[in-house]
Automatic annotation (TrEMBL):
It comes from Paenibacillus herberti. This is Spermidine/putrescine ABC transporter substrate-binding protein. GO terms for molecular function: polyamine binding. Signal peptide: none annotated. It is found in: Periplasm. CDD domains: PBP2_PotD_PotF_like_2. Keywords: Periplasm, Signal, Transport. Its main location: periplasm. It comes from the Bacteria.
Length: 358
């Protein structure tokens, strides 16, 4: 009888072992690819609660990594050896990645929530028909400033106000080649897509005269530094300005009159992806109006989702500094894909500007 009980116990242990193993294999399947989703996004650019909600709803394990510039993101994807399933590049980078065969076409049948996106953000020049990308956030580049810390009379309605000699060591600049070379070009009346070498050299020379005013060129920390009144003004993306002003309501945000940049960050599937179904599920999840509103409120950037807007607090959705009307954005320029060589040249010029400060 004892041996019968022992055999029964052995069978029970074996059965339980099999059950455990099956469950374990099922939940850990992701590590072989099919039940994980690797997302590659800008820093500070998603509400972590939404990632948890997505995991709970789908059973897909999210692996989340960040980048701080389009250039860094493109280099990483180009080099290979990564398995990013979803990434969030800006428009000119999408155009470049598409041309370099770094993106997979989307299956729009799996993206029914695309219907919530405002038409103003669909079918744009960098991805006609949204074959490769769906809108995530959008915004502008401008100046956030603290009226209590800037010298009297400076309103930054002109880019040239940044060069005011009274602003010594009081400016922060976003660490972006297109942004800095772009406002330099705009300040001289040129397009921020200018490729004329004489104009670019003139821009570099003018930017180099800005260095006495520049306290730091920084990434996401720019928000903390400006909100903490470590500098009087900064050139920033509008969403960062919104977040800074949420922390410190003394500050204001303006777009200088000579013009500036309107940009679009979209979700794409890199060619390296291994979980196409999960990638579409994630995109569709982020396109859901309630999720898009929650994300916009958390991150501070502007959502292109027209059905998310009514779900936002009125003081956010009615703020034309961050939800500017089409007649204002139509006078702003979108960054063009200037081609591999010219984009590298912009990066070199930016590096030269940064080195000049040292
Ligand atoms: N902290 C997130 C910043 C994302 C900003 N993307 C703007 C891209 C402009 N080309």
């Amino acid at each position: 009888m004892k041996s019968l009980i022992r055999s029964f116990a052995a069978i029970l242990v074996a059965a339980l072992g099999c059950l455990y193993l099956a469950t374990y294999l099922n939940t850990s399947e992701g590590y072989s690819g099919s039940n994980t989703l690797t997302i590659y996004n800008w820093g500070d650019y998603v509400d972590p609660e939404l990632l948890e909600k997505f995991q709970k709803e789908t059973g897909i394990t999210v692996i989340y990594q960040t980048f701080d510039s389009n250039e860094a993101m493109m280099t990483k994807i180009q080099q290979g050896g990564t398995t990013y399933d979803v990434a969030m590049p800006s428009e000119y980078a999408i155009d470049k990645m598409r041309q370099e065969n770094l993106l997979l076409p989307l299956d729009q049948a799996k993206l029914p929530n695309l219907k919530h996106i405002d038409e103003r953000f669909l079918d744009l020049g960098f991805d006609k028909g949204n074959k490769y990308s769906v809108p995530y956030f959008w915004g502008t580049v401008g100046v956030v400033f603290n009226p209590e810390l800037v010298p009297e009379g400076l309103t930054f309605d002109s880019w040239d106000d940044l060069w005011d000699p009274r602003l010594g060591n009081s400016l922060m600049l976003v660490d972006g080649a297109r942004e800095v070379i772009g406002f330099g070009l705009n300040s001289l009346g040129y397009s921020l897509n200018d490729t004329n070498e004489a104009h670019l050299q003139e821009t570099l020379a003018k930017l180099q005269t800005l260095t006495p005013n520049v306290k730091a060129i920084v990434g996401d920390e720019i928000k903390m530094l400006l909100a903490g009144e470590e500098a009087a003004a900064g050139v920033v993306w509008s969403g960062d300005a919104a977040e800074i002003m949420d922390e410190n309501d003394k500050l204001d945000y303006v777009i200088p009159k000579e013009g500036s940049n309107v940009w679009f960050d979209n979700m794409v599937i890199p060619r390296t992806a291994s979980n196409l179904d999960g990638a579409h599920k994630f995109m569709n999840f982020m396109l859901d109006p309630a999720n898009a509103a929650q994300n916009a409120e958390y991150v501070g950037y502007s959502t292109p989702n027209k059905d998310a807007i009514p779900l936002l607090p009125e003081e956010i959705s009615s703020d034309e500094r961050f939800y500017p009307p089409a007649q204002l954005t139509s006078r702003l320029e979108v960054y063009n894909n200037l081609g591999k060589r010219m984009l590298s040249h912009y990066n070199e010029l930016f590096l030269e500007f940064k080195m000049h400060r040292k």
